[in-house]
Backbone:
């Protein structure tokens, strides 16, 4: 059981579940109540989309480990699961089971909302994760953008569900801008983390003849790319903090300073000093804290509305 939990990377899956929970309870429900705009998304719909997303993400993690057996043997031999603790055939069966459940839930959800064809977004997500593991992740930038785009879809899904019910009103919903902003945050932080992970995994990626960003342009230039992206994120947040200062919204200002800006600055410092894989791994871990800070900001947002 422990090996299978390691395959699905439960530590990342719970963040997806947390994002859905907080999006509903801290944003959609609260703003809908305050504005008098009733959402057509029921509790059952939320459960279905959350579970469908988690199962599809889990299947993507499994197939990634299947295709990366030889790379992981060089990068992290002590953490190798497929081919050592779990046989490759068992891993494939696990992948098919998770993916089938995820797609089935997604199709049922869209049928409930009146249009099964809208389940295409779940099919594209599952397919994107498969081809990311099969090929895209070993190509220059493409794999990084695919994963970042799929991460951005997670907070956007509530809007997608609402569009099925009220297609003409989706951007007029009072909570739409918040979720669009969270999608942008998810895209940028995931892109940053994926590039950092590429620097961490250079040894194995070279063995697989990959053309990832650090292999193509070098570690030094890749560090500059990461630092630039982090600074774009920090600058965007500074503009928000300036508005919060004018409105004397001290909670949001201080929360983002401590929970988002400080981890972002720590990523820059860690990337600048990083030389060994363990150094880049620490930077990747800090980026997870940055993501968590962004997700938990929804709680601060709800409190600031009171």
Residues:
């Amino acid at each position: 059981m422990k090996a299978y939990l390691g395959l699905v990377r439960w530590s990342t899956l719970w963040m997806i579940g947390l994002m859905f929970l907080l999006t509903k309870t801290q944003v959609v429900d609260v703003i809908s109540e305050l504005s008098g705009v009733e959402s057509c998304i029921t509790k059952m719909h939320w459960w279905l989309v959350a579970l469908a997303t988690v199962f599809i993400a889990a299947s993507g993690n499994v197939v990634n480990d299947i295709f990366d057996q030889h790379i992981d043997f060089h990068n992290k031999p002590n953490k190798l699961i497929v081919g050592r603790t779990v046989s490759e055939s068992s891993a494939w069966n696990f992948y098919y089971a998770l993916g089938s459940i995820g797609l089935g839930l997604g199709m049922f959800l869209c049928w409930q909302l009146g249009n099964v064809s809208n389940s295409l977004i779940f099919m594209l997500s599952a397919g994107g994760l498969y081809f990311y593991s099969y090929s895209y992740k070993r190509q220059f930038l493409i794999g990084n953008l695919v994963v970042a785009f799929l991460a951005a879809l997670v907070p956007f899904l509530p809007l997608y569900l609402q569009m099925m019910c009220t297609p003409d009103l989706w951007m007029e919903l009072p909570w739409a801008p918040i979720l669009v902003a969270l999608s942008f945050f998810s895209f940028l932080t995931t892109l940053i983390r994926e590039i950092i992970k590429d620097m961490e995994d250079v040894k194995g990626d070279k063995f697989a003849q990959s053309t990832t960003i650090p292999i193509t342009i070098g570690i030094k230039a890749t560090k500059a790319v990461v630092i630039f992206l982090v600074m774009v994120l920090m600058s965007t947040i500074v503009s928000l903090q300036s508005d919060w200062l004018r409105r004397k919204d001290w909670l949001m200002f201080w929360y983002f300073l401590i929970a988002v800006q400080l981890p972002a600055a720590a990523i820059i410092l860690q990337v600048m000093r990083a030389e060994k894989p363990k150094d880049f791994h620490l930077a990747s871990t800090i980026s997870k804290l940055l993501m968590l800070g962004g997700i938990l900001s929804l709680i601060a947002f709800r409190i600031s509305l009171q």
The chain is about 80% helix and 0% strand. Residues 60 and 130 are 6 Å apart (CA to CA). The first helix runs from residue 2 to 8. The mean pLDDT is 88.
